[in-house]
Specification:
heterodimer; A: Glutaredoxin; Glutathione S-transferase Yfyf (Class Pi), Chain A, domain 2; B: alpha+beta; 4 domains; elongated
Chain lengths: 212, 586
């Protein structure tokens, strides 16, 4: 079974739990004492990932780190429909790669602001928040035009991709970092759509869309 | 310049409100939660649950009610009144628990609201005369004043000639927060109306509407053109804003919880009928059953909960109780069903024969002595005849929540089945039992009530004999008393008012005599004690009073056996004392 080196409050680990749940792939969560134990910086953990960060997966001996790389691997391997990581469609694949890089941006701004607030990381909070707003503004306009074209997801296909999953946690947890989504109504509607996907799973701070 | 709080402002666009979404907005420093209900009503509410202040915009919109994320308090469409508190599942929330609402009107593809707006939202003739086309709204980190100044120099190209930058621009001022720009080229011209929503002292949203809808094939290009041009304007406005000192933020006044909410609510003082309603529609929903749709003649109707009833004061002086059949969130009217009783003493007869569409009736505020739990794993509803009316409200509350229920509807014949339009939405959840004898009814009730399990609840309303049969059958089938809830049409018990005794009002330090032939309720009222009441025959439960000491002669049909046995409450309209003295907690 896939082992996920995991921390419950990590947005990047949540990305993996989310795709595994959406793909209905069983896995074993191996808790890492990220805070306050800093276990991911321990010599022991660096034997698994010399970069000393999580998430990391171990799929029957195949070890991979970096949140967005793991999404690529899991979708490519465990989604037989080929829709989550659209390798059969060069244009969609290009878009997905582009938005995965965008997600690096949201991770380094919106999620960094969250680490600053929640775990006391030493970041320039104003730079983080301003950067998050800059990216959210672009994404909100992008998604607004997608809606006008009858499309629901960041890439131009009719099915969500790992790009949605890579961006979603950084967006949906942003208010914890003091980044309001008040100005981004299309972004808020998109988070509702992600939450309505079959197999969606929550984490602390991420509420389900209720049917009740 | 007018006080911005007296004006209508856009707070959202209509497309911001897809089904079951809650839009998060802000106007003049105040956050609002904006949501569209299934009846297309747009709600603009203060974005804080009055319980613990959590943002309602992170809650859930099920199309009828908004549920707060924190403790699950549910609020009705339109009225914003609380309909259910999960921590008190067996109780009816006080009617006064209500979130703050703001007016809302949809016009030109925008949702208009305001703090305390005067009159109607602005009419813009050039939009009324055209075919308005809503552009993408843009948030700006700059005051409305700065944005409006930038808009006066704003440039765009007319539809048909989007390339280039040569259109001649003309400005039309449209009041404090709006202006129109007309772009004229060689062969084309376009007019856009720009409304600037003052979000806070340093933030705004530009909401723009073209006077004419472009051809389908051009729409995306037009939207992109305006998004690009407005994006440039946003950058200019934000640069201008950073060159100025930051203004003081607007502070929205958050209403304090009203005194009525922060103290124990006043008891209703009598059998009052403070509401005036007009009969908007009267129709025969089944043989001998008239349905009435009652709309307010003044303020919006108060919130009701499933199971609630109203007192209807009739032209002939009689007062009768009728259950509200509406589902949750269906708060624009009350719909009741009135069965013409063969032995009518004038109540149902008057409603059938003399009350017509357009007539005004006096009614009480809704009162709920038959509250519905919304946490049961299985709920069994048993209705006999017109007893279906509270069940209709209850089933409509459970259905959207996905809670398991079944409605067993007993009636004489097909033509006696009322409210087809509601029942048809309940599909397979309804089982109809027609023309059964008392024996067959008991057999059917035995079948229906078999298999009691944890967290099952039963609600039963119908004729007295059926309720008595159901009470016995439920007990035999293992249903605990607390899980079976009855609502009687009337109390058919022969009231024995021959006893005489003394009542001591513990809180008032008053002792009174209740002679034979007089009720406790009458004695209390005669001595100036304000007492609520409704049916005054021991069926509805409104005139209940807590008892501290003494033996009670229960003659009502409202209390359950366990409640009777506890001996700590009395229905003052019919019940009496077997001891010489009763000490009442009033």
């Amino acid at each position: 079974m896939i082992k996920l080196y995991d921390y419950e409050l990590s947005a990047n680990c949540y990305k993996q739990r989310l795709i595994l749940s959406l793909l209905d792939v069983p896995y074993e969560s191996v808790p890492v004492d990220f805070f306050p134990g800093l276990e991911h910086k321990s010599d022991e953990f660096k034997k698994i990932n010399p970069l000393g960060h999580i998430p990391v997966i171990d799929d029957d001996g195949y070890v991979l780190w970096d949140a967005h790389a793991i999404l690529v691997y899991l979708a490519a391997k465990y989604d037989p429909s080929g829709q989550w990581y659209p390798t059969g469609d060069p244009q969609l694949l290009g878009e997905a790669a582009s938005w995965l890089l965008f997600a690096e941006g949201t991770t380094n701004t919106a999620s960094a602001a969250r680490l600053y607030v929640n775990l006391g990381y030493d970041f320039d909070i104003d730079v983080c928040r301003a950067g998050a707003h800059r990216l959210f503004r672009v994404l909100d306009e992008h998604l607004w035009f997608r809606e006008r074209e009858g499309l629901d997801w960041v890439c131009s296909g009719s099915h969500p991709t790992i790009a949605d999953i890579a961006i979603f946690p950084d967006v949906v947890l942003s208010e914890e970092g003091g980044v309001s989504r008040l100005d981004y109504p299309a972004l808020r509607r998109w988070t509702d759509r992600v939450k309505a996907l079959p197999g969606f799973t929550i984490m602390p701070g991420v509420f389900p869309v209720g049917t009740s | 310049m007018s006080d911005p709080r007296s004006l209508w402002h856009p707070v959202a666009t209509s497309i911001d409100l897809p089904q079951h979404h809650i839009f998060h907005g802000q106007l003049l420093g105040r956050e609002v939660a904006v949501w569209r209900a299934d009846d297309d009503f747009v709600n603009v509410w203060e974005n804080r649950c009055l319980h613990r202040g959590v943002r309602l915009s992170i809650g859930t919109n099920d199309g009828n009610e908004l549920t707060c994320r924190y403790h699950g308090w549910r609020y009705a469409n339109r009225s914003a009144g609380c309909t259910y508190i999960p921590a008190h599942p067996a109780d009816a929330p006080a009617r006064t628990i209500c979130n703050r609402t703001f007016p809302a009107v949809e016009r030109y593809g925008l949702v208009w609201s305001g703090e305390d707006p005067v009159g109607e939202p602005p009419l813009v003739p050039m939009l009324d005369d055209g075919t308005p086309f809503t552009l993408r709204s843009l948030p700006v980190n700059a005051s409305a004043e700065i944005v409006l100044a930038q808009l006066r120099d704003h440039r765009f190209q007319p539809v048909g000639a989007l390339d280039g930058d040569h259109a001649a621009m003309a400005v039309t001022e449209l009041g404090d927060f709006a202006l129109a720009l007309t772009a004229t080229g060689a062969n084309y011209h376009s007019t856009a109306v720009f409304f600037v929503q003052p979000v806070d002292s340093d933030r705004s949203v530009i909401r723009a509407v073209l006077t004419d809808t472009p051809a389908d094939s051009e729409q995306i290009a037009v939207l992109r053109h305006h998004a690009t041009r407005l994006g440039q304007l946003v950058a200019l406005a934000e640069t201008a804003a950073t060159d100025q000192p930051a203004p003081e933020p607007m502070v929205a006044t958050i209403d304090q919880v009203s005194l009525a909410l922060s103290v124990m609510p006043e008891r209703e003082t009598n059998r009052s009928a403070p509401l005036r309603v007009q009969v908007a529609r009267k129709w025969e929903t089944a043989h001998d059953i008239m349905a009435f749709e009652l709309v307010s003649t003044g303020n919006p109707l108060p919130t009701f909960q499933p199971g609630a009833h109203i007192d209807v004061h009739l032209p002939n002086g009689l007062v009768r109780q009728y259950s509200i059949t509406n589902g949750p969130g269906d708060t624009a009217c009350y719909r009741i069903g009135v069965k013409l009783e063969a032995e009518s003493t004038g109540g149902s007869q008057a409603l059938h024969d003399t009350v017509n569409e357009g007539d005004v009736l006096a009614i009480s505020e809704p009162r709920n002595n038959f509250p519905l739990r919304r946490d049961a794993l299985r709920t069994v509803f048993i209705a006999g005849g017109i007893g279906v009316t509270p069940m209709l409200a209850m089933t409509q509350a459970l259905q959207p929540m996905g809670l398991a229920f079944e409605l067993h509807y007993f009636a004489q014949a097909e033509e006696h089945l009322a409210f087809d339009e509601i029942r048809s939405t309940l599909g397979d959840y309804v089982t109809v039992h027609l023309g059964l004898s008392p024996g067959e009814t008991s057999a059917e009730l035995t079948r229906v009530l078999q298999g009691y399990d944890h967290a099952n609840q039963a609600y039963i309303c119908g004729p007295g004999p059926m309720l008595e049969a159901a009470r016995t059958i439920a007990a035999e089938a293992g249903w605990p008393d607390q899980a079976v809830h009855f609502e009687y049409f009337k109390n058919t018990t022969e009231i024995d008012d021959s006893s005489s005794f003394e009542i001591a009002l513990a809180r008032s330090a008053v002792t009174l005599q209740v002679p034979s032939g007089t009720t406790i309720l009458e004695v209390l009222r005669d001595h100036g004690v304000a007492m609520p009441s409704s049916c005054e025959q021991g069926a509805c439960g409104t005139c209940v009073v807590p008892v501290i000491e003494g033996d009670i002669d229960h003659q009502d049909v409202h209390l359950k056996q366990t409640e009777r046995d506890a001996g700590d409450q009395i229905m003052t309209c019919v019940s009496r004392a077997t001891s010489d003295r009763l000490v009442l907690d009033i």
